[in-house]
Amino acid sequence: MGWDFETEPEFQEKLDWMDEFVREEIEPLDLAFRDSIMAYDRRNPIYKEITGPLKQEVKKRGLWACHLGPDLGGKGFGQLKLGLMNEILGRSGWAPNIFGCQAPDSGNAEILAHYGTEEQKKKYLQPLLDGELVSCYSMTEPQAGSDPKEFQCRAFKDGNEWVIEGEKWFSSHADIADFLITMVVTDTDVPIYQGASMFLIERGTPGVEFKRLTGLAGEAIGEGHHAYIHYNQVRVPEENLLGGPGQAFAIAQKRLGGGRIHHAMRTVAQVRKALDMMCERVLSRRTQGEVLAKKQMVQEYVADSFIQLQQFRLLVLYAAWLIDKGDRDGARTYIAAVKVQAAEVMHDVVRRALQVHGSLGCSNEMPLASMWSSVPLMGVMDGPTEVHKVTVAKQVLKEYQPSEGMFPSMHLPPRIEAARERFARYFEHEVANS
Ligand SMILES: Cc1cc2nc3c(=O)[nH]c(=O)nc-3n(C[C@H](O)[C@H](O)[C@H](O)COP(=O)(O)OP(=O)(O)OC[C@H]3O[C@@H](n4cnc5c(N)ncnc54)[C@H](O)[C@@H]3O)c2cc1C
Q1: How far, in Å, is the centroid of ligand 1 from the Cα of 50?
Q2: Structure pTM?
Q3: Does residue 79 line the site of ligand 1, with CB under 6 A?
Q4: pLDDT digits (tens, 9 = 90+) for 313-357
Q5: Who contacts 30 (Cβ-Cβ below 8 Å, separation ≥6)?
Q6: How many domains, the chain?
Q7: 164: domain range?
Q8: Within-domain flag for 206
Q9: Within this chain, do residues 353 and 302 fall inside the same structural domain, yes or no?
Q10: In terms of domains, do 71 and 166 share one?
């Protein structure tokens, strides 16, 4: 099988332009405006003023909202190229918004493009792709996590309306979203994989009640952008069903493949930042008569971090390549592996980078402590590490059979005997010569 690690020169030119544009025009926004939610809030006039011209520039270069395939009206770059783009965008909290590919809107656009009716596409997809709307994906439940088998939020048909009743937990951006996509049980007589449906719910629909807003570490209780929602007898018209009844699980699967690659490549960018900080610091900081970089334990930090980062990056690009080749089954294993690795590599490299910065690393004067606080999220959001490991293990085990006898197929005595039988004439010769 051939393998080429080079990027086409025309696409490399685009990446080079992005690299400079993100560094010069976007990364300063992360420094000037420290509340990252600003990058998402379309109704904020300052946001519009700042991002408008930058978005225009991205559109002019043909790099706006590139995540959709050509069948869905997008550019069709494929996951490998999108991955390389996200490796650049991941350096900044603002960049994905300015390139029109921020989560969860990008995944929501993907499912709307796949499953939406013409009317739904006109009303929700196009403005979402144009960056005029903000969306929310509301699936996780407080008692269930993201395991659909434990879901209790239900919808009942009443005339030509659906009535939704139940709770959802950690629905990111629900507070600023113009619409929510909610996954709800609609038929308890069939397995959940055929018994859940997705609904589009507009902002301001009566009954969408925020029990409270949940934040992340560092945010005050009651503040934050992850809503705990009670869908209190929320009525939505029939035409707000996304896809057919019972299709939610298939739709949810569609949402995740590419998104996980993009997120992983944005993680590569963060990990590289941590490694850059680590290397600069260990070459600069002196202790006991020499720079930290001379200490072998510190060298181990640098080497292990570099190796983990490169391994992870190649794993992500390989998963992207499999998706582009249409190897869905193979890609599934690798996408799950990538999800697991993202959390581990981020954990290991950020911890070492923070460690070599000592008290400065722990402080609020370097980006490291804030990166560190995002480490636990990586192994939880979009399904915990354990669940993705189970997927990897199940996929890997599909390739194997139990051994036929009591002993494993690699048990040496019978294999040696069989091999010796095959080469018996040489052994006879040996015996004769001795
Ligand atoms: C920053 C962030 C943003 C999020 N945004 C959204 C969003 O926009 N929309 C949305 O719907 N959800 C969102 N979530 C929720 C996310 O999908 C869930 O946190 C995740 O699916 C896990 O569910 P849980 O938190 O309830 O953990 P639980 O399901 O309670 O799991 C807790 C722990 O139990 C263990 N565990 C769970 N399952 C298994 C298993 N099968 N085998 C072994 N151990 C297991 C793991 O250690 C796991 O971490 C977000 C979460 C975070 C952190």
Answers
A1: 34
A2: 0.94
A3: no
A4: 999 999 999 999 998 888 999 999 999 999 999 999 999 999 999
A5: 36, 92, 93, 94
A6: 3
A7: 135-242
A8: yes
A9: yes
A10: no
